[in-house]
Amino acid sequence: HLYSSAQRKVTLSLICRFFNSDIITALRTLHSYLDEGPDSTATSAERAEFRRAHYSSALQLLVSNIQADWLHQLTAAQRAELWDGLFLAGPPEQALLVLMDAIGELRPTSNLDHVVSITEKFLQRGRLAELLWSYCLEAAPSDSQQLRETLLGRISALPDITANKLQLNNRALFRPQQYYPLLATEMLTALEHTCQALRAGTDCNLTFVAQTLGKVCIQGHGGSVLAVMAPRLSACTRSDMVWQRVCWKLLENVPQRWMETVLTGLVQAVSGPDALGRIIGNLVVTNKKAQFVITHKLLLLQYKYEVLQIILGYLAADRDRRPLLIQVLRSVSQAWANSSAVKHTPLEQQLYVSKALLLSVSLLKDSEIQELQLLQCMLGGMQTHLDSNVVRIRHMGMVIGEYLSSRMDINGTKLKFEYDQDEETRELLSLLAPGACDEPEAEPVNSIYKSARLTFYHSSDDELTPYDMSGDQEISKASPPRYLRDCLEILISSEDPVRVELALKAAESLVRKNSFAAREISVQMSKVLLHMDDKYNINGFLYLRQATMVALTVTDCIPVAHYLTTEFYSLNYSLRQRLDILEVLALAAQELSKPVTEKKAASISSATTAESTPYLGDNPVHWQQVVEKRIQSKTKRLTKVLPVSLATPNRYAPVAGHFFFPLLKNYDKPQVTFDLLGSDHLVLGRLIHTLGLFMHLAVNAPIAAQMGCALLDFVWAVRYHADQMVRRGVLFAVCSVFLSMPSQNLLVDISDQLFETRSWLADVAEGDPDADCRSLAVQSLVLLDKSLKKQLQDPQAPTVET
């Protein structure tokens, strides 16, 4: 489509004339126009004309006739030589565009697989390097801007294009983990050819290679590419001025809109300031965009010490760049002396600014420091730091004050403070004499490309490395069960590890797809899964079992919930099994409370996970997140436009009581293997958290008020428990009650307990040793006060008397 209609007509008539004769002869004739050897029957003018005007159209015609009978009559060897070879012998940019268009247009058939295989060979045989090198030889662009932009897009987004089309059948070479390091190696090869050409007196153009590098980096793959390129460029530029000039020219030709991502990735990939200086030269002096990125964005808007050390060392290494180091020092000293910043910025940021100030001053000469006149900045900043109530900030001020006074030589007076050295102060003091960054020894240039090329592709069959098949596994002859009852029978009676694993992996999807059959055996299957052990060491066993039990509970709520809550207090269960019961009930309640439209997404997510998910109560921050999310949902924001969503029934509300109330019985009756109020406080904390989660999910349910009263009565007895996890669970449960219980019920049903509850929460917020407990108590007080205020201000609200 990038060629004129006249060119296409000439090409079509030419090829149709060929195909009217013998097919093999016609294909060999096409090959003669690409053959540069002495045996070629075409003249050089004919070959040049074919490459320029007809090659792309010829390939498009071949792809459009990929289903023709004559193609399938060729032997495999003939097809590889004559048909595939046409894509691997001509101008690489035209071949790549045709191949990528074909992948996007063809349907998933064997023909698509054939084109994909040719594309894979295209990459393996170094055709990308040839493509990049062909553009390096052009003194001026010979193609259109549209064609060049299209080609850049295909090269930089090849993994995305193939993944969108091939999906699970994508080739390994097309995946980002392999493709982008390969592309980096091909760019290095093109740069090596450029160096060789310059030594021979041939001019080269690095614009397209620079555009390719920038395009890849802006799409988020700069880390993979520069992790390969930076060490090689560092090694090649150690003693080779031609390589240095090539690198400088490469960076100069990167488009301004992509300069930031390239420099950011490069600074993070190089081994030290010397390597950075050899690769980019004085780019910060000649390019304003690069100067802003290096001296401002990377230094002052992020807090990575490694980047700080590299950039400051780079600025100090050259006479032309030292004025920028002084400019950076002025900015850093102003930030360090800013009293507002000292009071309101995080300690990590202040530590970073202190490191930047120390490193900058240590890299300056005494004469340069005297010209800067840092005395006022030092006195003001040091006073601000010493006035702080935070010990760490005072120590920073002392360390920097001592060093600055020693470098400024104020009438021979040097400040000296008394402070106890800790890890932070020792780290600051270690920066006063920074050593040179060690860089790896240079590799021979010839070995660089040989080793890199062999990593990704081979130039001939003789160099092929045999695959490591030591980890291969024999394909299983067993097939997964297709019916739920068959799955249950396998789990009960089979001793074959393979069949058991297949049944366990298929169980969840079978339950969700066959709800009628699942209801018939839901309790029996839950019992089997609850007592099932991982005696075959199945990968992801805990999660697979849990996901199936959750699916059973969601499908047949009341019977399964009744069975699990009853078994929770039964004899002869381990603590792990009791925790499993709570986890299953919690996950099932959460799924039931979500809209029905999210059910498929939950099933797909569970099918692709192979490890056990952690219990919600393991992370106390989760409780705060739940409460915070609920608080945010109750907060009105006039400037926020909420999306319109369709109302869907809450499947959890009608069955909330079946999850909640059975767990409140028998908690104070110690069993032979279970003492909930005694030594088994871990289970107690999980139980209280699970009940609080049930309460939270029951918002707007008719039974919410009854659940809230029962939950407060239950947790009241253990509010002063010695274990902090139990106390966190209690406070989470109280927050859930205040969030989910209607305001009028708070005032009417538990009015007798409100005053005492508020006093207890105030005591916890002030004196509990655990920070999470104090935070949850404060949130509970806020929620309680809001609910009571709202209720008392409503004239139509029912009172205690009514």
UniProtKB/TrEMBL annotation:
Single Gene Ontology MF annotation: Hsp90 protein binding
Signal peptide range in chain numbering: none
Keyword annotations of the record: Cytoplasm, Membrane, Nucleus
InterPro entries on file: TEL2_C_sf, TEL2_Regulation, TELO2_ARM, Telomere_length_regulation_dom
Residue ranges of domain Telomere length regulation protein conserved in the record: 481-589
Keyword Cytoplasm: yes
Compartments reported by the entry: Cytoplasm; Membrane; Nucleus
Domain TELO2 ARM repeat as annotated: residue spans: 320-409
Protein origin, superkingdom: Eukaryota
Any one annotated GO CC term: membrane
Main location: cytoplasm
Gene Ontology biological-process entries: 'de novo' cotranslational protein folding
Statement: the UniProt record of this protein carries the keyword Cell inner membrane: no
Similarity-based family: Belongs to the TEL2 family.
Protein name: Telomere length regulation protein TEL2 homolog
Organism: Astatotilapia calliptera
Gene transcribed to yield this protein: TELO2
